[in-house]
Amino acid sequence: MKSTIENTVEFVKGKLEGAEAGHDWYHIERVWKLSKKIAVTEDCNLEVVELSAMLHDIADPKFHNGDETIAPKIAREFLEAQHVHEDVIEKVLFIIKNISFKNRGEVPAELPVELKIVQDADRIDAIGAIGIGRTFNFGGFKNNPMYDPEIQPSLNMTKDQYKKSNGTTINHFYEKLLLLKDLMNTTKGKELAQERHDYMLGFLDQFFKEWNVD
């Protein structure tokens, strides 16, 4: 008989078949691996960490007209069918609802360590070389300009403004990606984020040199 984790892998792969490349199974797999890497350095419930990592983007609101209720509903139905304990389900749903960058102003002051771990993993996958690739992929998906010197980054956006933003791909680095290093929760997360952050700074330096034909 397959384990709950194995069944979750199959379920998520099936649900995300054909998903936008920055939010597909491979994104989930990387976040899952990063979460386990961080989890070994923390005192946590590994089952909650693994299930949350795999289900956190099961129905990303940005691909469902901003509806944030779909993912928790799908996750609950799946976990109940797997006979997962209600306490674990509640913890997983809490993480799904509160992991997002855009929701950071609405989360409780005290967060469970499992959320801190999966959130760090998800944010780490948004930066570095992978983050650069994902950002340009999503910008192309939305047909956003790659860069426009006349359009300045919109800093300190509200949640609603962030959800509706259609700025340039390069501006997204300043509006989100370069902010993530300082939002890490765990010691391991901070360590992993620093290297990727530095890589992005080098990329941006080279990008502007080439853009300006220096």
TrEMBL record:
Entry-linked Pfam families: HD
Keyword terms of this UniProt record: Hydrolase
Domain of life assignment: Bacteria
Xref: SMART domains: HDc
Entry GO MF terms: hydrolase activity
InterPro entries: HD/PDEase_dom, HD_domain
Gene3D superfamilies referenced in this protein's UniProt entry, alphabetically: 1.20.58.1910, HD-domain/PDEase-like (1.10.472.50)
HD/PDEase domain boundaries: 20-136
Keyword Hydrolase in record: yes
The protein's name in its UniProt record: HD domain-containing protein
The organism of origin for this protein: Chryseobacterium carnipullorum
Gene: yedJ
